[in-house]
Automatic annotation (TrEMBL):
Spans annotated as Disordered: 265-296
Name under which the protein is recorded: ATP-binding cassette domain-containing protein
A single MF term (Gene Ontology): ATP hydrolysis activity
Keyword list, A-Z: ATP-binding, Nucleotide-binding, Transport
Domain ABC transporter: 17-251
Keyword Acetylation: no
Family indicated by similarity: Belongs to the ABC transporter superfamily.
Biased composition (Low complexity): 272-296
Species per Swiss-Prot/TrEMBL record: Nocardioides bruguierae
One Pfam family here: ABC_tran
Length: 296
């Protein structure tokens, strides 16, 4: 399914990431197949689906950490490869233990010179300058000198975004970066990612269980369920008929205020792990109200 709506932030030009007939089998189970995806400069693609449907594994495949079992994935025209520093990854929010001595700026600098596979990109002075600039960009100057273990979850996550941005990436891969954050911090972190793609044209693949915080930013949704997927504008994908067909069972998409809730979506498979961010009601991922796009 191809989006028929415009993607307001997508720039013209060749896709940054292109997948054709992509299939991923892990542990003997085919998570998804027949995936055709072009990610254009500036695009914000929200990746949704049940626990265990293969959302995080998509990011791993793009990062070259797991190999496709079929089809191909190309980044900037070349087959994806592990350790490509032009892609940046923002992990799930995980709190650093209270005694962690590393300071905020050092965490950010790891995005440049702490990488095991990459060469040193800059001299020491240039690294410091670049780190300082990104710390300012994410409005973390006030606390970047403090040990990360002393910082709040939201502050830590801002620094993780800074760590991802410090290498000036050409593709941003975010794996549930908002989980465990309160609404205010969810919005702050989302806006940092949004600003990056608007100002630098860096496209974003954003895995989440809840589209609501990023719905106004979302150009297209990629929804995985039942070994299949749908790709399109939120209006096209977040519908009862589309998701019922995808899950192979009745699924209701309800609008409650400015939010949309998906009701009745089953777990992907009995052994799928659950995450704290999963809504408890009916194992249903919550999703946001379809809008016509625009920035938050
Ligand atoms: N390296 C691996 N080897 C075998 N199985 C794997 C591997 N990595 C992931 N899996 C399995 O693949 C399935 C998909 O995992 P993945 O983490 O991609 O799901 P997800 O959609 O991100 O789920 P969640 O919403 O729970 O985070 C899971 O059943 C997982 O156990």
């Amino acid at each position: 399914m191809t989006a028929t709506h415009p993607t307001p932030h997508a720039h013209r030009g060749d896709p940054v990431l292109s997948m054709r007939g992509a299939e991923l089998t892990l542990g003997g189970r085919t998570l998804w197949s027949g995936l055709d995806l072009d990610v254009h400069p500036g695009e914000f693609i929200t990746v949704l689906g049940a626990n265990g449907a293969g959302k995080s594994s998509l990011l791993k495949a793009v990062l070259g950490l797991v190999g496709l079992s079929g089809g191909e994935a190309r980044f900037q025209g070349e087959p994806v490869r592990r350790g490509d520093r032009r892609m940046a990854y923002v992990p799930q929010q995980r709190v650093f233990p209270a005694g962690t001595p590393m300071r905020g700026r050092d965490l950010v600098a790891l995005g440049i010179d702490g990488h095991r596979f990459g060469p040193r990109l800059f001299g020491r002075g240039a690294v410091r300058q670049r780190v300082e600039q990104v710390v300012e960009d994410v409005h973390a100057v006030e606390y970047a000198h403090r040990p990360v273990g002393e910082l709040s979850g939201g502050e830590q996550q801002r620094l993780r975004i800074a760590q991802a941005l410090v290498s000036d990436p050409e593709l941003l891969l975010c794996d549930e970066p908002l989980s465990s954050l309160d609404l205010h911090h969810q919005q702050e972190v989302s806006l940092l990612v949004d600003r990056r793609r608007r100002e630098h044209g860096t496209p974003v693949l954003f895995v989440t269980h809840d589209i609501n915080p990023v719905l106004p930013l979302t150009d297209r949704v990629l929804y995985f369920a039942g070994g299949s997927h749908r790709l399109g504008h939120p209006d096209e994908v977040m519908r009862s008929d589309t998701l019922s067909e995808l899950y192979g069972t009745r699924v209701d998409v309800a609008q409650i205020g400015d939010r949309i809730v998906v009701l009745g979506a089953p777990d992907e498979h009995p052994g799928a792990r659950t995450t704290p961010s999963s809504p408890s009601s009916a194992s249903a991922p919550t999703t946001g109200a379809p809008t016509s796009g625009g920035t938050a």
